[in-house]
Fold this sequence. Notes:
The protein is an alpha+beta fold and 421 residues long. 40% of the residues lie in helices and 23% in strands.
Amino acid sequence: MITVISRFRVRNGLEEEVRQAFLNRPHLVEKAAGFCGLDVLTDSSDPSVFLLVTRWTDESSFRTWHRSEAHHWSHQLMPKGLKLDASFTSLTIGTSIQASPGIVRTSEVIQRQTGVLSTWLMNSDAVFALMLTPDGVIHARNRAADTIFPFDPAKGLGMRIWDYVVCSDHDRLRERLSGADGEDGSQFCINLTAGQQSPVTWEVGLVHCDGAFLLIGTQELKDVAQLQNEILSLGSDLSIAMRESVRKNRELKKASETIELLARTDALTGLANRRLLTETLPREIIRSERLQETLSVIFADLDHFKPINDQFGHLAGDQVLARLGPVLKRQLRLYDTAARYGGDEFVLLLPGSSMEAASDIAERIRKDVEALNVPECPRQITISLGVAQWTAGEAAMELIARADAALHNAKTNGGNRVENG
């Protein structure tokens, strides 16, 4: 199986639309020969960066799909006006270790797997080591390997183990690299030659290493025992290191998601904060304009909140705000947003809602708040709300300003009421 990863950046605030468009792609590609699955990943630190990950049984299946009419037609699913940063796009095929062109030492490649083995190989003049892909490409070598497997500048990084192995041993080594013999870390003999030199038989070990293979052997008899011990423990060391790496990556991802959630959430009410609101509203406007749908905003403010703090203390005021969060959430659909704008001010985004529908929601909120009972605040709590519906060409802050003006009218007219702007 191979994995194809495309990495790109969305330039014009259509992140969610792009993600949904790619998630719809399986309906087009699921019938393609060799297709095994699709995932869409985002970078939590930069939501405009996407990874589109597809899995295929082999490279030819992916190439066939990529050249097909259906693949080109699938681009029509992208949102109108999408702009991708082409310089950000890259493609990786295969499951083997992808060593960068600057890496020429095995110790650098496996440093992330086991530091003990890496240090030993780096300091050893007697033990040679090569990092091989399953098809025999040499991705890296240590210093001792240079004498047995001399580097050919003409071939560069495209050199293969087959350039050094005697032809009669090709099939046996291919079988081991394919994993068909099921022996990982076992020692075997292989005949090697370089240029016009006579073949020399070497005893080597081959260890599977995260999609690649580590071929190691000794030039001196005194290192045989050490080599055997390293071969026996290498598989276990790499397995433990990889499991630990997976665990740490999982923990880091969870921590990153938690930090991101905290950065976009108001801790007191559990609602979105102003930062998330200012990011979401422009996207909703773009979406409403593209789909020609309605979008309404409710601007809400508690009545006489300062006297509550002054008379009963800030702890009572905090309890009032904390109880208000669930009241607002009860009136929301999955795709609506309620955010604390600041202090005792709140904003609700209602995609697809008309002025009339938004006014009904605002009235239900007003009644729920009026019936709210907060033990720490022995007085009735009321709220005023202003409603505005987005008009074509209107900017985000202009829409907020109209809803705020409607809220001001509600306050001027006595509070505990809903006004439309």
